């Protein structure tokens, strides 16, 4: 009888108590880990219980939003360089327009030569600025950012197209109108295949929209949301087909470069040269119109920057909301953890006291 009691009484009670102690110890270990990790429920997905599916769902969403935010950051970096470059180009165009105004009246050959030389230098500067980089690619190159938009900036001012356009001014002496010369210069600019990369410009002496259509296909865009993309940046040769005419390529930058080539061809002229007044007036008008178009480009870039900033703000809010949901799914109330930990410690203490007391119990204690 006493043996049965020993086997099924004390031993059974001890086993049950030991199992309880182990369970409490495991709970204490978990609670201690949660306390030291600011209430995170478990260090493994398996330990998250019913919250596991929520965590699995939210984690890739947060990663995706982060990727969209990164795309916006890259686009903004590129736009920042674009805005600075356009500002430089506008400044160069305005400066040359001012120079033309200064020689509208009586001007000596030396004065005109000075403006002509500056136009050639300005042309080279514009070509160089168009190859501006954001550190990873050329900002005016469009989609193929690794291909420089201007093939050789150092050769533009002395290249074939520049020389041909400048030489058209010699026809003024024989009575050719400035309007006709401007048309010839525009055709030569459209037919050029040496200045710009073939990825953003198509040479055609008969189709003024060919290059513009090519530039349009190279517009850069980036993913900024679920089924949402944002177009941004400026392609060096872009423009509006509605602006194409016999005296305009439709591309503000091409027209600006053409005008610089024409001004550089004024070397040797003076205010007494045949057709001089009409030449200066028409070129000044063209420069003013082109400058206004370039300023509109600046405005477009500014609008793109504002739109991306607004999108980034929205994504920041989305990220905050998703991370809050993830935190709620992965963590528990730290105050409740403290209470549970205290209760478990109390239970463990009681269990150890009971185990200690059981060691001294006799058969009589069980009867």
CATH class division of the largest domain: Mainly Alpha
Across the major sheet, the strand order is 1-2
Report Rg.
Answer: 39 Å
Q: What best-fitting shape do the alpha-carbon axes yield?
A: rod-shaped
Strand content: under 5%
Question: N-to-C terminal Cα separation, in Å?
Answer: 12 Å
The CATH homologous superfamily of the largest domain is named f41 fragment of flagellin, N-terminal domain
What structural class results from the helix and strand content? mainly alpha
Number of domains: 2
N to C succession of SSEs? HHHHHHHEEHHHH
Mean pLDDT level = 86
> With helices defined by DSSP (H or I, 4 residues minimum), what is the helix count?
11
CATH architecture of the largest domain: Up-down Bundle
Low-pLDDT residue intervals, each spanning 5 or more residues: 1-9, 363-367
Please give the number of β-strands. Answer: 2
CATH level 3 topology of the largest domain? f41 fragment of flagellin, N-terminal domain
Percent helix among the residues?
55-70%
Q: Strand count, sense and closure of the main sheet? A: 2 strands, antiparallel
């Amino acid at each position: 009888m006493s043996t049965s009691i020993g086997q099924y009484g004390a031993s059974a009670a001890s086993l049950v108590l030991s199992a309880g102690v182990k369970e409490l110890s495991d709970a204490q270990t978990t609670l201690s880990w949660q306390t030291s990790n600011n209430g995170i429920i478990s260090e493994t997905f398996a330990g998250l219980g019913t919250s596991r599916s929520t965590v699995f769902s939210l984690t890739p969403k947060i990663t995706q939003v982060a990727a969209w935010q990164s795309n916006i950051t890259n686009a903004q970096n590129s736009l920042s360089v674009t805005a600075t470059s356009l500002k430089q180009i506008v400044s160069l165009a305005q400066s040359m327009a001012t120079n033309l105004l200064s020689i509208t009246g009586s001007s000596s050959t030396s004065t005109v030569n000075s403006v002509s030389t500056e136009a050639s230098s300005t042309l080279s500067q514009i070509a160089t600025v168009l190859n501006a980089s954001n550190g990873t690619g050329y900002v005016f190159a469009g989609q193929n950012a690794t291909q420089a938009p201007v093939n050789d900036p150092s050769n533009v001012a002395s290249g074939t197209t520049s020389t041909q356009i400048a030489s058209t001014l010699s026809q003024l002496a024989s009575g050719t109108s400035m309007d006709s010369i401007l048309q010839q210069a525009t055709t030569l600019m459209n037919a050029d295949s040496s200045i710009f990369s073939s990825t953003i410009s198509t040479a055609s002496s008969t189709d003024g929209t060919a290059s513009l259509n090519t530039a349009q296909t190279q517009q850069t865009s980036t993913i900024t949301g679920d089924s949402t993309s944002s177009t941004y940046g400026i392609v060096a040769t872009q423009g509006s087909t509605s602006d194409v005419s016999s005296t305009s390529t439709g591309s503000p930058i091409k027209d600006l470069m053409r005008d610089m080539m024409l001004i550089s061809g004024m070397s040797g002229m003076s205010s007494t040269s045949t057709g001089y007044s009409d030449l200066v007036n028409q070129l000044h008008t063209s420069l003013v119109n082109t400058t206004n178009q370039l300023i509109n480009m600046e405005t477009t870039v500014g609008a793109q920057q504002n739109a991306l900033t607004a999108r980034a703000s929205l994504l920041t809010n989305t990220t905050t909301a998703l991370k809050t949901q993830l935190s709620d799914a992965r963590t528990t109330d730290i105050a409740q953890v403290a209470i549970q930990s205290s209760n478990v410690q109390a239970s463990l203490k009681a269990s150890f006291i009971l185990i200690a007391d059981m060691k001294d119990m006799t058969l009589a204690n069980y009867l």
